[in-house]
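Notebook p. 47: complex prediction with alpha-D-glucopyranuronic acid.
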Amino acid sequence: MKIRFPFSLACIFLLNCTNSHAQSQRKEQDFDVNYIESRVPEYQLPAILQLAEGKEVQNPEEWHCERRPQILSLFSNLIYGVVPVPEFPIRVNSEVIDETDFLDGRCTRKIIRIQFENQRGAAEMQVLMFVPKEKKEAAPAFLMLNFDAVDSEKMQMASGESGMLESGIPLGKLIDQGYAFISVYQQDLVGHNESEFKNSIHQLFFREGQSYPKANEWGVISAISWSATKALDYLINDPDIDGERVALLGHSKLGKAALWAAAQDERFAMVFSVQSGCAGAALWRRKFGETLAKMSIFPNWLCTNARKFIHQEDDLPVDQHMLMGLIAPRPLYVASAIDDHWADPRGEYLSAYHASAVYEMLGKRGLISKSTPAVGQPLITQDLGYHIRAGGHRVEAYDWEQFIGFANYHFKQ
Ligand code: GCU
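Predicted complex, structure tokens below:
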């Protein structure tokens, strides 16, 4: 006897199978993600104030001249990738391509085009600027690495009196407090999950016959960091901007890029790492939330050498507290969100806590307590600041309030 299923019933059955298959697959993928604090393995961090040769760093000079370059080289060659010296010099041309009144005339909106060119190819990026109209001197600035492009709707004014951009950036507040707000789009020079490097900035740096970065050469994050540095090259020559008070800010992937940019380029006077997590503020060795293995769905965010440490984090000669140490003595603010388990908020705090040794050595104030502060208790007045807020993975009004507070405290006192 033939059993006949009504067609609709068969569809429901099939749908259910597919769903439960997808669910079990997802569960399997998540199976090895640890979200339980008591399961964080025992680990020992590499000593931040000890030279590779074993000698303790005794004073600021030894830090600056010996230990800092060692750590920088390890991050360059093993984690983010070195920017190679191009075979042909790169010509850079910057020009203002648009300038208009914005925010009811309270600021000027400018777009700068920066073009790069050599015998290997050409590329360009744009820098979007909002500069306060009423200012007695060049303005300090927030430079944000941004997921939104210059012409995206998110960078337009939200309706009403909010003074906010569609993306939630409190432009009115920043302008009223005397800050310029500057935005650099993360995908101008490299794709979000670049795999071919055919249209990325890397082209201009490839040697004869090369079509892919070498194992120690720059990946995606490093290229975004490079774009921040190129924006700063322009900004320090723009009379509207105080080049000595440019704070670099990034969320998530772009928080990773902000930390790496400021670690290399000491002209960034302040840094905000917002829920930057794995390869950002969080410690590798805790293996909480996202890990190096999980991050390999973006295989080129880091350099190829980093892959050697998948499931081998304890072999790394660095951990992320050392990246923060490279930013000392400049003010650094780390922001976490309590439900953002993927980014390991506890690991973000601990990194900052362990980086504090460098801040202290350089005569600055780091974090004293090993315990994460309570939600809603921002630490603003030390040079290494921190907050954790309620909620998840995004930049909220509360975060901006603390960022402005931190900048006011350290830029204006
Ligand atoms: C993914 C990725 C994170 C990254 C995040 C983001 O979740 O795994 O490492 O920080 O995207 O950029 O929003």
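Notes: The longest helix spans residues 7-31. The two ends are 88 Å apart (CA to CA).
Next step: compare against the earlier run before touching the bench.
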